[in-house]
Structure formats: structure tokens, C-alpha cells
Design brief:
This is Integral membrane protein. The protein has six helices and nine strands, in the order βαββαβαααβββββα. By secondary structure, the protein is of the alpha+beta class. It has two domains: 137 residues, no CATH class; 118 residues, no CATH class.
Length: 266
């Protein structure tokens, strides 16, 4: 479990951390990197940020934004391996300390009051009003945040979803008459080849063999695909539906071209 950032009365008891970069960001916050940054009131700097979520000694929720992305990435990698890692952020790298959490956190620091939003700052920065505490996007109903979370789940558990297509799901191939707006989604994704979208709209990650896992998002839609396989489409106007798209004559070239312009983790 992550350790506290400090040991004095101003300690931040770290609960979790995430990376916010063009190639890797919590997609629930937006369709691309600038949109995710805007949700936190941050400028979309190319180097990105690390987000450290924790509680102070009174139990209040805080999100510390650091420019030391490598430190946060190392901590996440250690925790994912089941290793202990005391994440201590150097004050000189802190960009902002924001009230609230932008993501849902299921744990709480022991020995402090239950998580709650801190009291408003009685003396906000000159010329500006106190910003409301950060809060996770509403995922209780189908919409952009839920759609992006669904795409995350497919990318994470590709083999499971792919197996459903093999067993009991009929899919369409480009060139056929696809379900509803699938053709529109594919055409909008193809438009990225002529007019590159904002950073993070198209991302590429490692997959098995020589393949890549491709993620593309746009206004009201998400695509998850393997460059050597099929694609899945999710749309805001198709609540809860996951629409498989077969290889066909067009999809392979589209996926290859999107992968070439995609942002990749360093």
C-alpha cells in the first residue's frame, strides 16, 4: 500500500496515483489529452503530469499534480507488481494541489476521518473564485464517460471480448451495411488521416506478437482494435452496445494508418 508523502501534520496520505500524458491518461476524463487536462484545469503540456490522490490529516481529499511523471510511473509499476513504494513528491515539482479527486477511489487512509471534500479556501487566489472540488465523472448512466470506460475494459480484456465474437456475436465488415452509425464512426476515424486530431485521440500500446492495441476516440464514439485483428465500436447513441467490426477489405489499412499517427508510450 502506498505510504504517506510526509510525516508531519501536513502529511498527504497517498492512496493511489495516475499518469496524465498524451499517450497515457484516464480516458474517463476526456476523449483526448487536452480534454482530460481541461477537466482538471491544467494546461496540456507535452511532458504531462503525475496525479497523486490522497487524504490529509483531517481526511480531506486532495489531488497533487506533479511534473515528475517518471516518479509517479515508477510508483505505479512497483504497486502493480505488489511491491511497496513510498511515493514522496518533491515540493519543487508540484504544479498544483487541487481539492477533491477526479477519479473514484475505493480505499481510504487508515487512522484519519472518512474521505470528504475540504472546506472552501476562505482566501482564493487574487482575481479568481475558489474552484469547486474535483469529482469523478458520472458513470451511473450511459454517456461519454461510461462509453470510454467500456472501451478501456475491452482493451484490458481483449481475449474475453474477442472470444464472444467467435462464439455468439455476428459482426459486420467495412463495405457491408453496418449497424447504425458504425460507418459514420469509421469515416470520422479515417478523417484523422487527413487532419490529425488533438494529442491522445489515437493511442497505440503493446499487444501480443507484432500487433498493437489501437484506441481511437471522437465526438460520441470510441474504437478499440488490434492491428492484426478486428475492431469494436462503442457509441454514445447506442447505449450499452459493443459493435464488432470485421477485417473486411478496408479495416486493415485503416488500422495500420491510424497506428502510424498514434501517440505511443515512451
Amino acid at each position: 500500500m502506498p505510504a504517506s508523502e510526509e510525516s508531519d501534520d501536513d502529511a498527504l496520505y497517498v492512496l493511489t496515483a495516475v499518469v496524465l500524458t498524451p499517450a497515457r491518461f484516464p480516458s474517463v476524463l476526456g476523449d483526448d489529452y487536452p480534454e482530460a487536462c481541461a477537466a482538471l484545469g491544467l494546461a496540456p503540456h507535452e511532458a504531462g503530469y503525475g496525479l497523486v490522490l490522497g487524504q490529509d490529516g483531517d481526511g480531506a481529499r486532495w489531488t497533487v499534480v506533479t511534473e515528475d511523471v517518471s516518479l509517479v510511473a515508477c510508483a505505479i509499476a512497483a504497486w502493480d507488481c505488489g511491491m511497496e513504494y513510498g511515493l514522496a513528491v518533491d515540493d519543487r515539482t508540484v504544479v498544483a494541489s487541487l481539492p477533491g479527486w477526479p477519479l473514484a477511489v475505493a480505499v481510504a487512509a487508515p487512522g484519519v476521518p472518512a474521505p470528504h471534500d475540504p472546506a472552501p479556501d476562505p482566501e482564493p487566489a487574487a482575481g479568481g473564485a475558489a474552484r469547486p472540488p474535483l469529482a469523478p465523472p458520472d458513470t451511473g448512466r450511459w454517456g461519454p464517460a461510461q462509453r470510454r470506460l467500456g472501451a478501456d475494459e475491452i482493451a484490458l480484456r481483449w481475449a474475453v471480448w474477442r472470444g464472444q465474437v467467435d462464439s455468439d456475436v455476428t459482426f459486420v465488415a467495412p463495405g457491408e451495411k453496418p449497424h447504425g452509425g458504425v460507418r459514420r464512426v469509421l469515416e470520422e476515424a479515417r478523417g484523422y488521416l487527413k487532419a490529425p486530431p488533438p494529442p491522445g485521440r489515437v493511442r497505440s500500446a503493446f499487444a501480443s506478437g507484432d500487433a498493437r492495441t489501437l484506441r481511437a476516440d471522437g465526438p460520441g464514439w470510441s474504437i478499440v482494435a488490434r492491428t492484426d485483428d478486428i475492431a469494436f465500436v462503442l457509441m454514445d447513441d447506442a447505449p450499452g452496445e459493443v459493435l464488432p467490426v470485421g477485417r473486411g477489405p478496408e479495416l486493415p489499412a485503416l488500422l495500420t494508418a491510424l497506428d502510424e499517427l498514434a501517440v505511443r508510450p515512451t
